[in-house]
Amino acid sequence: EAQVTQNPRYLITVTGKKLTVTCSQNMNHEYMSWYRQDPGLGLRQIYYSMNVEVTDKGDVPEGYKVSRKEKRNFPLILESPSPNQTSLYFCASSLIAGGSYEQYFGPGTRLTVT
Amino acid sequence: AQKITQTQPGMFVQEKEAVTLDCTYDTSDPSYGLFWYKQPSSGEMIFLIYQGSYDQQNATEGRYSLNFQKARKSANLVISASQLGDSAMYFCAMREGYAGGTSYGKLTFGQGTILTVHP
């Protein structure tokens, strides 16, 4: 089954404790992206990757890091989480060329930083 | 300036009736795509429908259709014969640019419209 998986689905952590949210897709998509969703703001892009070893900032990259060492994986790293990073996070992937470029979303990770 | 505007924070519709969710967009890029996603209370993002900027006809997918008015920069979602399961948040989103452009691939989302279907 074609899918994007994220782990963990729920996470409660404390300020300053480094964490990683994993994202993996099995569709051989070149493009992967992280979004955060906050009430009244819709979804905003954090980082994206056009292919292995190619990453770039989205609209709200501060406080986040990413890496793309393998095509299927795109982890999101919070080196020193703060309460303003409490949010719902989505990983998404798509093809770069051909079709509607529909982005397939993971199930979301609900993060709470206390 | 907002790139995607959804002016209806909430909408109500009677079961089996049609409803239109509004979306206007702003771009100077001639090549772009418009998407609608549904987010039920469980939180996942479900792709509904896509319209390319060069598509001549309005997109349709089952009970969903996209009323694309390019000159007015609007891409309204029409849901026909509403069902109770249609109650959810609906997001309009736009993808700009050509492959290799700096913003290529990014989906810009509107703030969403909460649709409630009454029995």
Main traits of this protein?
heterodimer, A: 114 residues, mainly beta, seven-stranded mixed β-sheet, four-stranded antiparallel β-sheet, 11 strands, globular, B: 119 residues
Structural overview:
The complex is a heterodimer of chains A (114) and B (119). With 114 residues, chain A is mainly β. Chain A contains no helices and eleven strands. In chain A, the strands form two sheets. In chain A, strands 2, 4, 5, 6, 9, 10 and 11 form a seven-stranded mixed beta sheet that branches. A four-stranded antiparallel beta sheet of chain A has the order 1-3-8-7, with no helix packed on it. In chain A, strand 5 (42-51) and strand 6 form a beta hairpin. The termini of chain A are far apart. In chain A, 38% of the residues are buried. With 119 residues, chain B is mostly beta strands. Helices cover 0% and strands 50% of the residues of chain B. Chain B has no helices and twelve strands. Chain B has strands at residues 4-5, 10-14, 19-21, 24-25, 32-39, 46-52, 60-61, 64-69, 74-79, 88-96, 107-109, 113-118. In chain B, a hairpin with a 6-residue loop joins strand 5 and strand 6 (46-52). Chain B is globular, with a radius of gyration of 14 Å. The N and C termini of chain B lie far apart (38 Å). The relative contact order of chain B is 0.32. The mean pLDDT of chain B is 91. Classes of the chains: A mainly beta (114), B mainly beta (119). Chains A and B meet through strand 4, strand 5, strand 9 and strand 10 of A and strand 5, strand 6, strand 10 and strand 11 of B.
Give the overall shape of chain A: globular
How many whole angstroms does the radius of gyration of chain A measure?
A: 13 Å
- Biggest beta sheet summary of chain B: 6 strands, mixed
Order of helices and strands of chain A: EEEEEEEEEEE
N→C terminal distance of chain A: 36 Å
Helix content of chain B: under 10%
Low-confidence stretches of chain B: none
Which radius of gyration of chain B do the C-alpha atoms yield?
14 Å
Please identify the oligomeric state: heterodimer
Low-confidence stretches of chain A: none
Shape of chain B: globular
Task: Tell me the β content of chain B.
Answer: over 45%
Mean pLDDT of chain A: 93
What is the count of DSSP helices of chain B, taking H or I runs of 4+ residues? 0
Cα separation of the termini of chain B: 38 Å
Question: What is the number of beta strands of chain A?
Answer: 11
Largest interface: A-B, 29 and 24 residues
Strand content of chain A: over 45%
For the largest beta-sheet of chain A, the strand count, sense and barrel status come to: 7 strands, mixed
Tally of DSSP β-strands of chain B:
12
- Alpha-beta content class of chain B: mainly beta
